[in-house]
Structure formats: C-alpha cells, structure tokens
Write a structure and sequence with these properties.
Layout (H helix, E strand, L loop, with lengths): L6 H27 L6 H7 L3 H9 L11 H46 L9 H18 L4 H13 L7 H18 L1 H13 L1 H21 L7 H23 L3 H8 L1 H7 L1 H14 L4 H26 L29
Helix pairs in contact: 1-3, 1-10, 1-11, 1-12, 1-13, 1-14, 3-7, 3-10, 4-5, 5-7, 6-7, 8-10, 9-10, 12-14, 13-14
C-alpha cells in the first residue's frame, strides 16, 4: 500500500467533496430563499455517509507515517493543516466581517475571530479536526493502546448523545470512529476495492440494496438515531468505495479523480463563489430553487479549480494552496522540494 496517488481513492475523495459542497450550497440557497428545492432530497440521502467517508479516506494512509518522529509528524499532520486553517479562516472572516460587525459590533466581531482558534470556523471545521485526529492516533500508537480498545471507545462516542455546543468536542465524538477505522482497516478497504473491480454485477446489486436501505431510513427519519447512524456511516463509506472502484474500472468520469486530487483546494476556496453565485441567481429569480442549487454547487466546485490552475500558470498567490518555507517547523523543510501543497 503506497501513499502515492491511488485512482479509486482520489475518485472517492472527489465524490465526497462534491457532496460536501452540495450540502452547503443547497442549504444556503434554501435558507436564503425560504423554501426547499428538488436537490434537498439528494443532500438528505447523502447525509449519513458524506462526512464518514471523507474521514475514513483521510485515515487510509496513516500507517505509512505514524511511526515518524514527533517533530516531522507534527509538521506534516498538524502545522500543515493549521497553516491553511488560519489563512483561510482569516480570508473568510475578512470577506464576512461587515456581516459580523453588523450583527455583533466591532468588538464582538474581533472576539469571534479569536474564538475561531478554538471553535472551528464555518466550513473549515474539517481541516481543523484532522490534526486532532492525527495527534490522538499517534499518542495511542506510541502508548501501545490496543486498536480494539480505541475503536470500541470511538464507536461508543459516536453512539453517545454528545452535544456540548463545542464543535471540536461534538465532531470528535461523531467522526473519529470513521477516521480510526480507515487507519486500522486500510488493508481490508483496499482489498474491498479490488474485490469490487472483479465482481461488477454483484457490486451493483449490493449498491442498489444499500441505496434502498439508506434512502428508506432517511425518509423515515431514522438515519440519525444511535447505532443506525453508525451503521449507515460505515455502510455508506463502503458504498462509496465500491462506487469509486467501479467508476475507475469503467474508465469514466475522470473529473472526479481530478477533483479528489485537489479536494482540499476545493474545500478551502468554495465558499466565495458559492456565496456570490447564490446572491446573483436568487436576485435574478428566473430559475426554480433546485436548479439554482445545482448551478451554485457546480460553480462552487469548479471555481476553486480554475483559481488553482491560474495560480499554477502565473505563480501568483501560490501561498494560498502551498505552505511556504517559513510555515514549517525548524529543520523539517527540504530545500530541494517545493513547499507542501494543501493535500
């Protein structure tokens, strides 16, 4: 198993990032319009597995780096994400500061900014949580905690009704089990992808059955219930793995792999084109809410890729998606390589 690019892993990331952007786009449009559209059903269907699969995929290659010394590990798995979180949190804050100042006052807005260092800011909570997960896994590994104990505790946290109001605590309880499962069961997950490629018909039957069960439980309003939520998250992650493996085997939809290779780029930058396109389309008022949501989602996914392409062509603004030399822990930057990209 290599940390190099794996086609179906990138495809799975691509599917996940589209669902994540779709959720924010659709709910944003519907909230602004005061009504729901036909894309609401798609967002609801994806809710049980959207983030579980994203975190599971993020843990797949952890075994390749978890034995590194702490300095290098912290640089690659904590400082790296901290740089992009602080940078893009500040960018988002600057864009939205007129709204914050109007609602909270100047001092309230400033307090909100500094609170964002401990209470993850808006859409950026995913890259805030990743370093926490990486550190917890490293500590457990170095202390020799049995993986069965860690996985059991993580599952109990997911099942428990943890609602403190602090995003760091609540999302850790809800999501860590999937990240840790990706780390522990990586060999089996890669075998599952290989299995799907060899058994296309059976994989399609399983995906159909999963889709009916997942959709039925969402429709009944049971998908967020304890145990059911955990089971649907795991099953949905498996379904995305099967789907990605089959897509790669078919040689179709290569754009998903490309999106997956740059999923963090999309995640960091989608908020601005999403907001602008939403305002413009709703003011025009010529399309139904579902179609507006689809267009906003498409613009929000594609625009960061265009920005990234422009940066690579011009060399301007590269710090937005690549960590500069000064943002490395002392001695960990290799002068012979380019600054680390936001992956």
């Amino acid at each position: 198993m290599s940390a190099q690019r794996v086609d179906w892993v990138d495809t799975a990331r691509g599917i996940c990032i589209i669902f994540v952007v779709m959720m924010h786009s659709v709910l944003g449009v519907e909230g602004a319009a005061g009504e729901t559209g036909w894309m609401h059903a798609i967002v609801a269907f994806a809710a049980p597995f959207r983030m579980p699969d994203f975190f599971l995929i993020s843990g797949l290659f952890l075994s390749n780096v978890i034995t590194r010394d702490w300095k290098l590990y912290l640089d690659r798995k904590v400082v790296h994400f901290a740089y992009f979180y602080v940078l893009w949190m500040t960018i988002q804050f600057i864009v939205k500061v007129p709204v914050f100042a109007g609602e909270l006052g100047t001092m309230g807005a400033i307090e909100f900014y500094f609170l964002s260092f401990v209470q993850p800011f808006g859409t950026l909570w995913f890259i805030y949580m990743l370093p926490v997960f990486f550190v917890v896994c490293k500590l457990a590994h170095d202390k020799g905690v049995p993986w069965q104990v860690m996985l059991g505790l993580a599952a109990l946290l997911q099942i428990a009704p943890v609602h403190t109001g602090w995003l760091l605590v609540d999302e850790f309880a809800s999501r860590f089990v999937y990240f840790y499962a990706g780390y522990i069961f990586a060999p089996q997950i890669f075998k599952l992808a290989d299995w799907a490629r060899e058994r296309v018909s059976l994989s399609l039957v399983l995906l159909l059955a999963w889709g009916l069960v997942n959709g039925g439980l969402v429709y009944l309003g049971w998908s967020a219930k304890p145990l059911i939520s955990l089971a649907l998250g795991a099953a949905g992650a498996g379904a995305i793995i099967l789907t990605s493996a089959l897509i790669v085997k078919a040689g179709q939809m290569n754009f998903l792999r490309h999106f997956g290779e740059n999923s963090i780029v999309i995640y960091l930058a989608f908020f601005f084109p999403m907001g602008v396109s939403r305002v413009i389309l709703l003011k025009l008022g010529i399309l139904d809410i579902g179609t507006v949501s689809l267009i906003v989602t498409t613009v929000a996914v594609v625009s960061p890729m265009i920005l990234f392409w422009m940066i690579r062509k011009t060399g301007l603004g590269w710090f937005l998606f690549k960590r500069p030399e000064w943002a490395y822990l002392g001695g960990t930057f290799n002068a012979k390589r380019q600054p680390q990209a936001a992956e």
